[in-house]
């Protein structure tokens, strides 16, 4: 059974490019740790299609 989960992140203030990159690296590491490399690639590719920066 597939589950869709929504993640909402609220940021108050200015988001720099460095902060954005760091957040995406942390997110990618967490996804790899939980699901493994192959599934993580699929998840991250799907997220890119939804407008996240590459």
TrEMBL record:
Protein name: Uncharacterized protein
Superkingdom of origin organism: Bacteria
